[in-house]
Design brief:
single chain
């Protein structure tokens, strides 16, 4: 448990231990949200967005038949230049 003090401007300093746990660096954005039980949760917004994107993409490569880097490059080329490019 960490205790922080709110400044007159509404600012807090995130303790070092918490910054390390969340892999927060200067300039990172912090996400605050309330869970179902009413607790306020603090999270690394960048990491949260990445996890959400990873979850959304789960299984897509397999469905598209992408097995390796060459397959991915072929798909990128098709999107960029059209299907008839050799």
């Amino acid at each position: 448990m960490n205790l922080v003090r709110l400044s007159a401007n509404g600012q807090i300093t995130v303790p070092t231990e918490i910054r390390k746990l969340l892999n927060l660096k200067s300039g990172d954005k912090i996400l605050l949200f309330q869970n179902k039980s009413g607790e306020i949760i603090l999270d690394n917004a960048s990491a949260k967005a990445l996890r959400k994107a990873q979850d959304a993409m789960e299984g897509v490569a397999e469905r598209l038949g992408l097995r390796d880097e060459e397959d991915v490059q072929r798909l990128v080329d098709e999107v960029r230049y059209g299907e008839n490019r050799i």
